[in-house]
Amino acid sequence: MNINWNAVSYSIPKAKQDFESLVVKDKMITPINPSPEWLPLREELIRARDEIFEKNGLDVASTLGYEFDVDYGFKLYEILNDQTGFTNRAASSNDVWRYLSLRVIPDIVHARIGFEEKQDHYYALPRRVWLSTIWWYIHLSWAGSEEATRELLATNSTDTIMNLVERPGRGYYVDVYREIMKQYKGHTSRDLFRRVLKLNTARLITTSPELVAGGIEQYVHDLFESAGAGK
């Protein structure tokens, strides 16, 4: 596959036009006509979905949830990261995620998200575009291997994804977020997680975590303590 990720240009007006041209027929969404250079990627992403469906018996599922977000997130992360030129820069491009959502695999997005009044998750709000959120969720939680990362994510929920990905402040400080996810393991309070992320956003304005005595690990430990983790 030879995709020039940096050349992907797909504006919100164009995405809106394509979204409004999609039609749901017999639970399928049409039309899906990616250009030839995108077909191999589409086929690989479809195979990944089919593997998850078969493994978990999802063909008869009426709705998909957090477990599918995680499973497909890992597949998406692996497949895209194997693409030549797909870097954090490409992953930071809203145009890329809009294009994938509407021109390459809108059927997969539809299966998870639905369609009516769901434009935010296809193109309209960058922090809520589903494909982007699950890729970044895996990236910001990465613990060195899929097995280790799955262990961190096992007891989380869609709220965790939303809070982690939608609260970037002035950008993603990847090492800090990965340490937050590591230290959040074992906690069950969603309010604690939100408080930690809110504190982090505020402190990053004036603090360089790697310069704190004890480094990033201690910086994150202090976040949890300040957020009331020990109470």
SSE pattern, N- to C-terminal: HEEHHHHHHHHHHHH
Portion in helices: 55-70%
How many helices does DSSP assign? 13
Kindly provide the radius of gyration, computed on alpha-carbon positions and rounded to a whole number of angstroms: 18 Å
Low-confidence runs of at least 5 consecutive residues: none
Strand order of the largest sheet: 1-2
What is the gist of this entry?
By secondary structure, the chain is mainly α.
Q: Which terms would index this structure?
A:
globular, two-stranded antiparallel ribbon, 231 residues
What does it look like?
- The chain has 231 residues and is mainly α.
- Helix content is 60%, strand content 3%.
- It has 13 helices and two strands.
- It has helices at residues 12-21, 39-56, 66-81, 88-91, 94-104, 106-113, 119-124, 130-141, 146-153, 158-165, 174-184, 190-203, 215-226; strands at 23-25, 28-30.
- Strand 1 and strand 2 form a beta hairpin.
- The longest helix is centred in the N-terminal third of the chain and has 18 residues, at 39-56.
- It is globular and about 55 Å long.
- The relative contact order is 0.10.
SSE topology sketch:
Elements: H1 12-21, E1 23-25, E2 28-30, H2 39-56, H3 66-81, H4 88-91, H5 94-104, H6 106-113, H7 119-124, H8 130-141, H9 146-153, H10 158-165, H11 174-184, H12 190-203, H13 215-226
Antiparallel strand pairs: 1-2
